[in-house]
Structures are given as structure tokens and as C-alpha cells.
Amino acid sequence: MQSQETPGVHYSRWNEQNQDEVSVNTSSTETPAWRRAYNVLCTGRIGIVMKVLGGLALFWIIFIIGYVTGYYVHKCKKG
Predict the structure, then answer these.
(1) Polar residues: which segments have biased composition (predicted)?
(2) Is the pLDDT of residue 39 over 50?
(3) How far is CA 52 from the centre of its chain?
């Protein structure tokens, strides 16, 4: 028999009244907000779009850091 804390369905064909019995146990706790946000933003089509946009943003951030670093490393000295 299942614990009361785990969600699930319990079907009992044989009981005292000789009737079928179905009981559904649902979890009393709700899914955390971070998990719902993850499911919306990181799965499906929206997840693919978010990953592509994140990759492009990361590319440009690294490009700009490299450009600025290269500018100051290779800057001609006046003097």
C-alpha cells in the first residue's frame, strides 16, 4: 500500500462491500516557483529561444571584452 505522503492512485477491487474502490492521493505541497519558472523558460520552444539568445549575448560579451582588452594591450605608446 502507498504512503499517504506520495501522490498516486490506489485501486482496490476487493473490499468489505464487494465494490470497486478508487482513491487518489495528491500531494499537498505545490511545485516551487523556481521549478515552474524553469519549466516555462528552459523547456520547449521558449527554452530553445532562451538558449539561443543567451548564447548570442554571451558571444557579444566575450567579443567586447576581447576587443577592449586587445585595444589596450596593442595600443601604440605615444612618447
Answers:
(1) 14-27
(2) yes
(3) 16
Prediction pTM value: 0.53
CA distance 37 to 44: 13
- Predicted confidence at residue 58, as pLDDT, reads 98
The C-alpha atoms of residue 48 and residue 58 are separated, in whole angstroms, by: 15
The neighbouring-strand residues paired with 24 are: 9
Mind listing the pLDDT tens digit for each residue in 15-25? 566 666 666 66
Cβ proximity of 22 and 11 under 8 Å = yes
Q: Which amino acid is it at 57?
A: A
Per DSSP, the three-state class of 1 is coil
